[in-house]
Amino acid sequence: MKAVVLLSGGLDSTVCMSIAQQSGVDIIPISFDYGQRHHRELACAKQVADFYQVKKHVVIETNMRAIGGSALTADIEVPQGQEEREHVPVTYVPARNLIFLSYALGLAEVENAVKIYIGVNAVDYSGYPDCRAEFIEKFQSITDYATKASVENHRIIIENPLQYLTKGEIVALGIKNGAPLHLTTSCYQGGALACGVCDSCVLRLKGFREAGFTDPIPYQDQ
Asked: Which residues form a coiled coil (predicted)?
């Protein structure tokens, strides 16, 4: 059996990929060059894919910078992070997960895959609306009606195994699974050294502290 895995090159998607790999399916990662602020995460995704020796790694080019509206796709300053989010941050990319899942669904149909894995989780709930469990459930409903596969009784299941895990639990699970966390990046700035102060870096570092491990990637101020 095959499964498509959304792989950004970050912590969550890499741990999610380790879960898919251990389930025994033939994993097909899909990554996106979407006009993001930097390409370091895409380079990391390629390294993670190589680590798992996948037979196929699909990289989709799509220009979300033409839409803008985010610090990741427009000339908007990346804010320093906080461990707790109260509002949708400016790093939210409008409709990104909806678009990415749609591409993944098309790939799953072509590859006759039975599942799509996405590493959204409860930590992002209060920040990004397209990381909520409700969104995944709604997309599953669309999947069940929008494809040739569904008409032919070949249901494609959306798996979000990290949905209700804390960052600390995700880190611990990744280490348990032998996921190559040293090959990942979470920094919104995209430098050779992670900044350590953007929202994503703050959440990542908090997760490693909670799990009782040291983050293996280098930081500017660590």
From this structure: none
Any known ligand binding at 187? yes
Q: For residue 163, give the CATH number of its domain.
A: 3.40.50.620
How many domains are contained in the chain?
Answer: 1
Is 58 contained in some domain? yes
- Tell whether residue 11 is among the known ligand binding residues: yes
- Would you say residue 80 lies in a domain? yes
For 141-171, what is each residue's pLDDT tens digit?
A: 999 999 998 889 899 999 999 999 999 999 9
- Residue 16, marked binder: yes
Pair type for strands 115-117 and 157-159: parallel
14 is in an annotated binding site: yes
Is 13 annotated to bind ligand?
yes
Q: Which residue has the higher pLDDT, 79 or 181?
A: 181
Asked if residue 17 belongs to a known ligand binding site, the reply is yes
131 is in an annotated binding site: no
